[in-house]
Design goal:
197 residues; 49% helix
Length: 197
């Protein structure tokens, strides 16, 4: 009878650790609040180290008679955060400034943008729209169809407008040799991930 409170406290600790682990995964990988955003490598190393340790702790508790519920809770805490769709800062920024992004695309379609010395082969954003891209340059391609690329943050994610799927896949940082398509955020707007070179 005296050992029961000790066992209950130990069980509670295991549940708390599992829940904290799930919250950490969710914040680190699934939300724009991630303190690791842009530093995925560090977060991944921590994940690789912590997951086997927590699996061992929970499995050991299960084998010592704590009951299957503890291990089931832990497995649920591992799986649940990955099943929630990820929201990036780029998506939030796009939602806040969608009309401005679309205006720049329309100006690019009409050929009302120009090259600048600092952008080399890229284009300068129209006056008043510089805040839409951190490097003050936008990439525009007209073949095989209009593609306009913004870099809203200093991460490896790009905000891309592509009029056709073929144009999207033809762009080097989306479907080409230097990146991949992350997700379609709305209509012809996409998030693409640049590869590390």
């Amino acid at each position: 009878m005296e050992n029961k409170p000790k066992s209950l406290l130990s069980t509670n600790k295991l549940v708390i650790i599992s829940v904290v682990y799930a919250v950490w995964i969710y914040i680190s990988y699934r939300t724009p609040l991630s303190i690791f955003d842009g530093y995925v490598c560090c977060s991944f190393v921590f994940l690789v180290i912590s997951t086997p340790i927590l699996i061992w702790i929970n499995l050991r508790a299960f084998l010592r008679g704590k009951g299957p519920i503890i291990f089931v809770i832990f497995i649920a805490c591992v799986i649940l955060p990955w099943s929630i769709p990820r929201i990036t800062l780029e998506e939030i920024f796009f939602a806040e400034h969608q009309s401005e992004f679309e205006k720049v695309v329309e100006l690019a379609r009409q050929g009302q943008i120009e090259h600048g010395d600092s952008c080399q082969y890229a284009f300068l954003p129209p006056a008043g729209y510089e805040y839409l891209t951190i490097d003050e340059c936008i990439f525009v391609e007209y073949y095989p169809a209009l593609t306009v690329v913004f870099t809203p943050r200093s991460s490896r994610r790009l905000l891309v407008y592509a009029e056709t799927e073929g144009a999207l896949r033809a762009y080097v940082s989306c479907g080409g040799s230097d990146g991949s398509i992350g997700k379609n955020i709305e209509g012809k707007w996409y998030i693409c991930h640049q590869d590390w070179n």
